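hey so u asked for the seq, here:
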Amino acid sequence: MVTVPKLTPADAVAAVRNPLAFIAAHWTPDPRTVRRAALAALVMSVVIVVTGGAVRLTGSGLGCPTWPECTDGSLTPTNALSYHSAIEFTNRMLTYVLCAAVGWAIIAARSEKPHRRSLTRLGWAQFWIVMGNAILGGIVVLVGLNPYTVAAHFLLATALITVAAVMWQRTREGDGRPRLLVGKAVQQLVWALVAVSLLLIAAGTVVTGAGPHPGDSGEVERIDVSWSGVAELHAVFAWIVVSLTFALWFFLKGVGAPQGPRDRVRDLFLILLGQGVIGYVQYFTHLPTVLVGLHMFGSCLVWIGVLRVLFSLRERAEVSADVPVQSYDAVSASIAGPK
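ran it, C-alpha cells below
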C-alpha cells in the first residue's frame, strides 16, 4: 500500500508557487515512465494531424464558423448545426488531450533524477508550438480556410512532430557527447535525404491547397496552380527520397556500418513503399477521402522515419561522475565510422 505524505501549509504554498518544482521534489519517475510520456506526446502530435485531415476531408473546416467559440455566443455546437460542427468541435477538443500529453511529458522530464534540462526544454517547446498552432488554427477558420494558412497550420504541426520525436529519442539515450557511428559521406547523404523530405512535405501542402478537398462545401479560396502539375512535382520529390533511401541502405551495407543505422533506413524504405502505393492509387482514383486520410498519416510516419535515420547516426552515453564528457571517443574520420 502506498503511503501518501502529509502536506503542511508550507507545502501547499510551495505547490501553488511552483507546482512543477513541488512535484519534482516529491516524485521521481522511472525512466520508462519518462520515455512513455514522451512517446504519448509524439503519438498525440500525429493523431491531431490525422483528425485535422479528417476535418478537411469531410468538409467540416467551417463546422464551427468562428473561434475560439464554435458559434457566436456558444463554445459548443448548437442543435441548429450539422454533423460537420461535431467533427470540427471534436478536433478542437483533442487539442486539450494533446496539451495533457505534452504536460505529462514536461512533468515527467522535470521530475526525473538527475534532472535533464534539455528534456524539459523540449517539452516546453512542444507546449508553445501547440499554443501557436491553436491560435493559427483559429486564424484559419476566421479567414475562411485560406489555403496558405492551412498549409502553415500543417507545417507547424510537422514542427511539433519533429520536436516530439527529438524528445522521445533523447529519453532513450544519455547526455554524453554525441559519438558518430558513420563518416562524413554518410552524414551528407542523410542530410540530403532530410532536405528533400522537407521539400516533399512542402509540395504536399501545395497539392492540398490546390486540390479538390478545400475543407468546406462552400466557396473556398484555392491556390491558383495546376493541381495535377504540383502532384507530379510531389511525386518527383517522393522518388528522389526513395532513391536516396535505397542508395543509403546499400552504401551503409557496403561499408560495414553498424546495424542501427541500417535498420532505421530499412524501416524508412518499407514506410515509403506503403506510402507510394497509397499515393499512386489515390491519384488514379481521383483522391478518395479514405486514401487521402491514410496518405496524411503516412506522411507523418515518413517524416518520423527520416528523423530516426538521422538520430541513428550517433550515440550518446550516460554522463557519470567517473567519466567526464570530454573523455568519449573522437569522431571517426572513416566512411563507416568506428567498428
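Residues 321-339 have pLDDT under 50 and may be disordered. The CA atoms of residues 125 and 238 lie 29 Å apart.
lmk if thats what u needed
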